Structure prediction request, 326 residues.
Amino acid sequence: MAEHDKSYKKLFSHPKMVEDLLRGFVHEEWIDELEFATLETVKDSFVSDNLKERHDDIIWRVRWGPEWLYIYLLLEFQSTIDPFMAVRLMVYIGLLYQYLIKAEKLKKNDRLPPVLPIVIYNGTERWDASKELNKLIADGPKALSKYRPRLRYLLIDEGSFGDAKLAAKWQNLVAALFRLENTRTEKDEKAIAQAIQKILVLLIDWLKEPELADLRRDIETWLLRVLLPSNVPSEEIPKVTELQEMNQMLYETIQGLYKDAEARGEARGKARGQAKMLIQLLETKFGPLKSYQKTKIQRFDEKTLFSCSQRFITANSVGEVIGKKR
Prediction:
């Protein structure tokens, strides 16, 4: 999990990823007013009074007219959902403001910049924690309501997006990233390999520009060290490779899986024929078989059926051939 967190955070250290995140997943009119060319990271960890550093957050800022707007990205990779995420974000944003006051030397009449808090969650269960701090606080006396702190964060729950909805976000690298993450929900390794390969073909085209070379390398690293070992565990992953080579590797993997499936199908077909023959021989010698005996024989593989046929010659009962009922 540590490798996943580290490599995932590195992906969102690229301005192109942050731009695609905002354009593709923040459905607000003011997004079009942002000057994305001004995107820059600020300080990616804050030290609170107990000296505990934040390492799973990334802070960006971008120009919105004459003002800076801050984007606080929190990458959440816990296996369990944090019901008090809104409280955590209130603390983190407070630390951000504290840092800005000191670093930028804000004066008495200066105003703090707006902050958009975003939680990117990739857990298997759907997020059900409250996204509003106000809803986590007990009512208390009515007169205290005006003192209640208010904060709401934007949740991006990767697994809540269907593949078709993500695919519709054309040339959006974050949507492609989420689609790759979500391949783990496929039922078998062949389907996973096919889904990954389909997305790799797009990434090869989308990341071909020279200015995206660093991002392409970080995506390759994430694929090699995290996604492929996790989602395609039977495949031996080469130590150094590029997107084109991964694409070819997955193509060969898929072809191999098809051949394996065909071989298993042929073997199973042969076994069915042998099982039918054994049932006929047993019924000729011992009379009609019980339904459970037929079912048991039909589940035997070739090796077991061969052993049964050897025992058949000297057997005095069906049980001596196929074994007693358990």
User: Anything to note?
Assistant: The longest helix spans residues 243-286. The CA atoms of residues 101 and 112 lie 8 Å apart.
